[in-house]
Amino acid sequence: MRPPRAPGCSADLGRCRDLGAAEAFDYRDERLPAELAWAGPGELIVDTSDRNDLEAAVRLLARRGRVVLLAGARSRPVLPAGELYTHDRSVLGFAISTATAAEPAEAAAALNPRFAAGGLRPRRVEHHTLADAAEAHRRPEHGEVPGRVVLLISPSSVHGGHNGFSGRTDGPRDHIRATA
Questions:
Q1: Exposed / middle / buried, residue 39 (Cβ in 10 Å: 0-12, 13-18, 19+)
Q2: Looking at residue 147, what DSSP letter applies?
Q3: pTM of the predicted protein model
Q4: Cβ proximity of 41 and 66 under 8 Å
Q5: Percent of the chain predicted with pLDDT > 70
Q6: Residue 83: CB partners within 8 Å, gap ≥ 6?
Q7: How far apart are CA 106 and CA 13, in angstroms?
Q8: Distance separating alpha carbons of residues 42 and 148, to the nearest angstrom
Q9: What is the average per-residue pLDDT within 28-54?
Q10: Please, are residues 23 and 6 in contact by the beta-carbon 8 Å criterion?
């Protein structure tokens, strides 16, 4: 498999390259389909843009390539069925909320060494208490968080104690992190 290409907004292109993308493109650029077509067919397109332009994405796939949609719950894109099945291409959706308990554990086992080595770094992390969970959930839905949201849950609330969080701690054993 070739090194990944990463579409992102213009502010993130350098960050994409720093994290290992062979090429980085601005997904807001009107010339993106032409630029990606020039770069050649891709084996994988991960669409986090909420635009879900499947007509353009499927044309850019290599034989047996796939598009993975991570955003766009309200979008209604055109599905180019002929270009999919005649080239063994596929479109998949992924939502962490439907994962089994084993799937995030498997992903964590693969990703944690990269996090520990500094190979994966979130742009920004916001920490919220469990009492602020509704607001912490609302903000990303409205595009107000350019990074990750972490809910801090006190160990006592997990073991039958109170449901709040009585202050932030930074030790790995002092709280449980649930990424939203």
A1: middle
A2: S
A3: 0.59
A4: no
A5: 78
A6: 58, 59, 89
A7: 29
A8: 28
A9: 82
A10: yes
